[in-house]
Amino acid sequence: MTNTQLISAADLEFDFADRLRKALRLANLNATQLADALEVHRNATNSWINGKHMPRPRDIKKAAEVTGVPVEWLVTGNAPVNDGGAESRLRDLNPRPVLYEGTALPLS
Asked: pLDDT for 25-35, tens place per residue?
């Protein structure tokens, strides 16, 4: 018998690491290229992308500039309203997860 639990919507929320990966994909960059642009070691960017550590505020700002996404979106997941169309591009890249009621998924 498999132990199953319902996954809550909070479990499916996107975090900073998810948004950073999406920003890199949008900018067609990899972790090494981001590290070079921010003048940090590639292990630092890998730890941010893997969600192990958070970057310093100045590195978050620079990562947003390098990838072309709003800082607010990178930090919170909310795009500014007056960003000239980037919000819809980010929304397409970062759709909200859908939780189907009653769907149980095994958690390992």
From this structure: 999 999 999 99
Instruction: Please classify residue 49 by burial: count the beta carbons closer than 10 Å to its beta carbon, then call 0-12 exposed, 13-18 middle and 19+ buried.
Output: middle
Is pTM beyond 0.70? Reply is no
- For 85, residues 6+ apart whose C-beta sits below 8 A from its C-beta are none
Other beta carbons within 10 Å of 3: 8
Question: Domain of 42?
Answer: 16-95
Q: Are 10 and 48 in contact (CB under 8 A)?
A: no
How many structural domains is the chain composed of? 1
Domain assignment present for residue 91? The answer is: yes
